[in-house]
Amino acid sequence: MKQSDGWGMAAWPFVFAFAIMAAPLAAQDGDAGARQFAARCAACHSMTPGVKSGMGPNLVGLVGKQSGTRPGFTPSAALKKAEIVWDAASLDLFLANPIKAVPGSRMVTAVPDPVARANIVAFLMRAK
After folding, report:
1. How much is the pTM?
2. Which helix (H) or strand (E) holds 20?
3. Does residue 53 lie in a domain region?
């Protein structure tokens, strides 16, 4: 049987890969991210300017800053050495699996769900 579009079955892996990559990008919702942050992250991280966090650094104004440089917090040597500049891509990678992204990091809580992670990243991106 001849395929009329010229692509045949060879195009399906590309279509599938694009759908997987595009889903988190399309799903970014900062309001949902605020709720997810409160449920998953607020026990260790504050989003209130000037307020010391629990076990992790205060994350207000995190975007554009280098890892391991948050005031009032002593980071792991691994996170400081990583010299990551936090943006949407680096936050997404780190939150997916902090221990794998930065071996030796003290952050052990991952956000494996790509939609929840995209929402939390959107929330962090808008927090000044």
Report:
1. 0.77
2. helix 12-26
3. yes
* CB hemisphere CA count around 2 (13 angstroms): 2
Q: What is the CATH number of the domain that holds 25?
A: 1.10.760.10
Question: Does 1 map to a domain?
Answer: no
How many domains are there within the chain?
A: 1
Chain position carrying tokens 């900062």: 30
Residue 17: HSE in the Cβ half-sphere, 13 Å Cα cutoff: 5
For 23-65, the pLDDT digits (tens) are 444 457 889 999 999 999 999 999 999 898 889 999 999 999 9
Query: Is 28 domain-assigned?
Result: yes
